[in-house]
Design brief:
Structural class of chain B: alpha/beta
Helix content of chain B: 10-25%
Shape of chain A: globular
Order of helices and strands of chain A: HHHHHHHE
Protein name (chain B): GMC family oxidoreductase
Oligomer: heterodimer
Family (chain B): Belongs to the GMC oxidoreductase family.
Number of strands of chain B: 24
Pfam families (chain B): GMC_oxred_C (PF05199), GMC_oxred_N (PF00732)
Largest sheet of chain A: none
Low-confidence stretches of chain B: none
Radius of gyration of chain A: 20 Å
Radius of gyration of chain B: 24 Å
Keywords (chain B): FAD, Flavoprotein, Oxidoreductase
Largest interface: A-B, 48 and 44 residues
Helix content of chain A: 55-70%
Cofactor (chain B): FAD
Structural class of chain A: mainly alpha
Distance between the termini of chain B: 35 Å
Strand content of chain B: 15-25%
Number of domains of chain A: 1
Number of helices of chain A: 7
Number of helices of chain B: 13
Low-confidence stretches of chain A: 1-26
Chain lengths: 184, 572
Amino acid sequence: MKRRTAIRNLGLVTGGLFLLPSCNFSEERVPLVLSKLKITTEEEILLEAMIDTILPETDTPGGVSLKVQNFVWTMLDDCASPEQQASFLNGLRGFNASVKEKHGDNFVDMDKKERLATLQNLMDDETLNKDLSNFLHTTKHTAVWGYKNTEYYMTQLMPYKLIPGAFSYRTKTIDPNEKININA
Amino acid sequence: MPNFNIDSTKKNTFDAIVIGSGMSGGWAAKEFTEKGLKTLVLERGRNVTHIKDYPTTNLMPWEVKDANQVSYDVKKENPIAARCYNFKEDSQHFFTKDKEQPYIQEKPFDWIRGYQTGGKSLLWARQTQRLSDFDFEGPDRDGFAVDWPIRYKDLAPWYSYVEKFVGISGEYDGLETLPDGEFLKSMGLNATEQYFKEVVAKKYNNQRHVIYGRCAHITENKEIFMKQGRAMCQTRDLCRRGCPFGGYFSSNASTLPWAQKTGNLTMQHDAVVHSVIYDDEKEKATGVRVIDAKTKEMTEYYAPVIFVNASAFNSNMILLNSKSKRFPNGLGNDNGLLGKYIAFHNYRVSISAEYDGNLDKTTTGRRPTSGYVPRFRNIHKQETDFLRGYAAGFGASRQIIQDSEGLGEALKQNLVSPKYGNWRVGSHMMGETIPKEESTLSLDTEKTDQYGIPQLRINLDYDDNDEKMIADYVEQFTEMFEAAGFTNIKAHDIPDKAPGLDIHEMGGVRMGHDPKTSLLNKWNQLHACKNVYVTDGACMTSTSTQNPSLTYMALTARACDHAIKASKKGEA
């Protein structure tokens, strides 16, 4: 038993060591490879911070650990029109300036509470310019979509069956105590 | 010294040639090879082997890169194909891309094509409803097109023959408008569909029916399916990816491997048929000219019997392009009617509503079919200001409402706390359209495609009869929905939706009694060139309202039987 505990602790320690550098040394990030969009590491970090605010890590994995930010970039890169892409990037590039103007700080430098309040504030603001508003709402909408499309969500939270089996379809009487599975 | 010419002619000679490997071509291949005929199947697209070439079939949703959305670039390059409801990231490889075969739209028409082994049988909606005498007698009674040269009794045994092999899930409804077939177990209507069925039966004194949509899915284990290597439908409802179980019928899963096993099948891919060869001296067709899609080289293949199953419009194209001294206007086209009287199914309108009953019930699992409402207008006599009528799809599902308001922990909580809403009910119209002389296919005199084949000109549109029918459908279904207590009833007519997305284009080489007014006889032989048969959608005299693939398959099996018997007797 002691040996197992020791190994587990060792795992925790090494895990921590491995994790540590990737948090602070942003220049060591491997840039996301996209086919059309040209984005900087700072822009990647900003979107990631937004995803972390929209879908934070709680007792269940959040958007960032499920790589929802990559989903948002990929969908924008593959499926959006050049006009939609330009509007999104324009919004993203005007985001920090708006945040600074209204809240006096860079979004990524804020703590989690401030980020949440700031983002909520901006999203409720109907006077925002079109590109910024489009950027915020597209990010939220696509993040929710991506989150619901993750392996985690579709196996742990709302399990999807690729092969339900013959005669899976039937009418059933609802048990009010049973959790609803949107993918059942 | 060998005579290379004779050798190559011999090498390219078969007992039968089938143009096209889709729904009907696959059946011709099966029937001929089973009876011992060395059969060449010409497929203009690439090879798609069952299971092996279904690259997306086992992907989990999160493994499909763009969440099953079609990318901007693909949409932009394929505005036509991308309008098809079934054109998705996981199925786009089974659709012919727009640039492969340009055509001229005299009026807007979305021509959906699937050039590969199995054709569109990989992509179909798998609804299999028989025609009845109310359909076969329609043109004669109502005075349009020409009389069908066959009646239900001629086709009934062939429907049964085909259904037993295909596997049809259905219920014995006992309706004269939609004859019963050889059915496997039903996957059932749900509680709200069943409720609507009862409301409609009562309100209209059993003159209108809501039934379970008969579909080409295996729902019972039988030896005939095991022999084909097909298993029961696992209700994945991912048919468009190709089914690894062979749960639904496709040429790829069924008729073509069956034909292959006989040892009598030769499949030639990338084989674009240019024309049918007519020998003026022998006074019959002797073979076909084929352009290799890759090398663009032309090769001739020969056979005493030729089946044209290239898909409705392509079969027209091939015949129009088959010019000879005897037939300067296209093969069999003595009366100038080849390419005329084309028609389609009017799918322009749908209707949605909500139902706040059955709130203690929901459904679980997936079902690859829905409810079906057979035609109820103008059955026994003309009773409306438009000809014919419409069938309709009908389905109900319990709404699950997911709140995606908020940010942060509140949002995450919302995304795991869905609630039941009302039932959502919906129907879509499948209207019979009237084949008219001015609805035409023709070959352009200047523009050609990449193979040098003249481009097809399509001239087809909605008419006044279609508009009246749409209005009636909306009126009648609103009345039916109101009778059931459905609320929030909304009709969705999309006047911009061009014909074609029904993927039920038909006619141009219609069947009939008289060589003066039709192209094909009651056995699907060209009146004027009897060793050429057309048994795909091109042969349809009228469209009925029913999904037509089952009828093409039955007509094909019947015509093959006739061709084999005729060749034994030394005819044709």
